[in-house]
Structures are given as C-alpha cells and as structure tokens.
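Progress note, sequence design subtask.
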C-alpha cells in the first residue's frame, strides 16, 4: 500500500518526529511505501510529491520545522480543488492520506473523509494546545519552555532597572501558552483571550509589586483584550487568511502602564521564536507516539479518525471532534493561578 503524508498550517516542533514514526513503522512493520506531499494541501492539489523513505527520515527527530514544508492552502477555496486531489491521489496510487495539522488542516481532512470518501487519518498539532479532543498537542511543551526561559531572563533585567516588563506570547484565541509559561516563570500578571482584562487592575498589581521592591513581569497572550475595549490595534486589518491581525497588545499595554503608573515599561514580543528550533523531549515522545498510532489507523482501515492523547493513552476519535470548538482555558484554572498576581 502507498500512503501519502502532509503537514499543514503553522509549523510546530515535533512535526518531523511524527513523520519519522509513521515512516519507520509503516516500512518496517507493514511493508508500506510513502510519498511526502509538499506544503500542506498544496501538495495533493498540485500532485507535488517528494521521496519519503527510511533514509529521508534519518536524523530528523530533533529537527524543528517540517521536512515536507507547510502552507495554509485550503482546497475548498480552489476551483475543482477536491476533484484535483482525488485525481492526483489516484494517479499516484496513494490509498491513504495522513494529515498532520491544526484546526484548518484537520477541518479539511474531516470533510474530505466524511463527505468525499477520501481515506484520511488525522494527527493534531499546534503550539497553542487549543484543539479539543486531545489533552495535549506536541509543540506546546517546547513553546512553553521557550517562553518560560525568556521570562526567567527578563526578571533579571527588569530587577536591575526596576522596570515593568510586558511579555507578549502566542495565543490568538486561547491563553494556554500564557498561563503555563506565566505560572512557570513567576509572572505577576497573566492576561488571556478568554477573559478581558482591566487595565486599572493590571496597574494595581504592578504598583503593589513595586511596593514590595520587586520589578513586575506581565505576560499577555497576543489575543488578550482590555475590558473597556479602548485598545488601538497596531493593525486591525485581516491577513490573507482572514485572521484579524492582533499584533500590538503588548506594546499598547506597556504604554498604558507607563501612562497610568508613571513607571517605566518595556515590551518583548516572543513571536515565532516560540515555534522554532528543536522540540523538547516530551514533544518528541508525544509526536512519535502519534505517528506510530496514525499508521496503525491506516493498517486498520480506520479512516476519518484522529489520534489523540487522553491521560497517558493514545486513543482514536473522529477528526471532526478536534475542530468543532476550540479548547479554551477554564476560568477556574485562571482564578487558581490568579493568587500569584500582584
Ligand atoms: O496557531 C499557531 C500560531 O503560532 C498562533 O499562535 C499564531 O497566532 C499564529 O500561528 C501565527 O501564524 P503565522 O505564522 O501565519 O503568522
């Protein structure tokens, strides 16, 4: 049997570990051969493939990014997109497709499988950890580690100058990276998209921290918004994928803190640093296990299925379960962490 593999959406540390797990087990245990589709859904759309065999996956376990390339191409937005994919799979004798991606990539896989009979298996990925149906996604642990290290470093420079340091982390819709790295890094305020924040309250925390002779660190997720809605986004336009550009909350907040407290403030936007470089040991472990289980789904003919982590077990769920709604930070958890604010 020939199996196609693709990685779609934003890249994420651990993608190569999944690919390696799939190919190693598929070749060695089941005698399958593979084709790698380039750049997410663009690959099957254009029939653009690369060699994917044991030598191709040698040495990629600790490498960030994806050897297959990625894109946010959506075949449903292309003329004859689905027909072209079906035609290319047939021409290239690909009998199953393993799709590694986030909400958008998996949304396409679910529809292709359920509505058009294309045999897809899903593997969830995102540094944001906001996919339902799985306890964790790989990439998240690495991103939290990078953000935590940054916060640790910012503490010492903040203390030396007795300044406020605002750290903007990724998380357009959810505050998982913010809450995990903020707690691990000992932040004095953590602001998440799930709950609009009160700037006066943030300033009160900042002031109380200075009163105790410490310099405050404020962690803010890129999608967090103030309660009074008076935030001026640097750029409120839509990007080419229809996402509202949210860059700017960190900068805006630092200025507001300076204006309202009279204390000097600086902003660090961590951005794509959180997505780059070598995956953590946990992410390699999770990604590899996802890969091994995904190829088992193919062997079982279990299509329309996604692998997911439940506790310490890898389970199978319908792909659509991951995309129906985002997994947001529970406000009880947010309240629990709030004991450290100020
Ligand atoms: O979904 C992952 C993510 O890294 C988000 O946290 C972030 O908002 C977005 O992707 C950035 O996307 P791009 O790489 O297209 O700018």
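Output:
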């Amino acid at each position: 049997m020939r199996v196609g593999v693709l990685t779609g959406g934003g890249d994420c540390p651990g993608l190569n570990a999944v690919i390696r797990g799939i190919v190693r087990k598929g070749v060695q245990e089941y005698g399958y051969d593979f084709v790698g589709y380039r750049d997410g859904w663009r690959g099957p759309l254009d029939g653009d493939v690369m060699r994917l065999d044991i030598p191709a996956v040698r040495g990629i376990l600790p490498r960030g990014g994806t050897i297959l390339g990625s894109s946010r191409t959506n075949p449903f937005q292309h003329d004859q997109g689905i027909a072209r994919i079906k035609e290319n799979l047939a021409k290239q004798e690909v009998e199953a497709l393993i799709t590694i991606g986030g909400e958008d990539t998996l949304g396409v896989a679910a529809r292709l499988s359920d509505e058009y009979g294309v045999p897809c298996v899903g593997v969830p990925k995102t540094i944001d950890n906001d996919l339902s149906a799985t306890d964790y996604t790989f990439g998240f642990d690495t991103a939290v580690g990078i953000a935590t290290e940054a916060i640790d470093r910012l503490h010492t420079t903040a203390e030396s100058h007795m300044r406020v340091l605002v750290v903007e982390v990724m998380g357009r819709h959810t505050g998982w990276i913010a809450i995990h790295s903020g707690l691990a890094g000992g932040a004095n305020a953590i602001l998440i998209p799930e709950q609009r924040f009160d700037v006066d309250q943030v300033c009160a925390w900042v002031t109380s921290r200075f009163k105790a002779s410490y310099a405050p660190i404020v962690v803010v997720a890129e999608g967090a918004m103030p309660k009074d809605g008076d935030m001026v986004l640097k750029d409120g336009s839509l990007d080419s994928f229809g996402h509202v550009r949210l860059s700017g909350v960190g900068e805006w907040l630092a200025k507001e803190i300076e204006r309202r407290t009279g204390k000097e403030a600086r902003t660090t936007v961590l951005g794509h640093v959180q997505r780059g470089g070598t995956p953590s040991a946990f992410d390699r472990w999770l990604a590899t296990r996802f890969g091994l289980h995904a190829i088992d789904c193919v062997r079982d003919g279990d299509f329309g299925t996604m692998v997911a982590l439940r506790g310490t077990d890898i389970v199978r769920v319908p792909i659509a379960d991951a995309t129906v709604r985002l997994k947001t930070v529970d406000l009880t958890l947010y309240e629990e962490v709030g004991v450290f604010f100020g």
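Residues 140-161 form the longest helix (22 residues). Work on this subtask will continue into the next period as scheduled.
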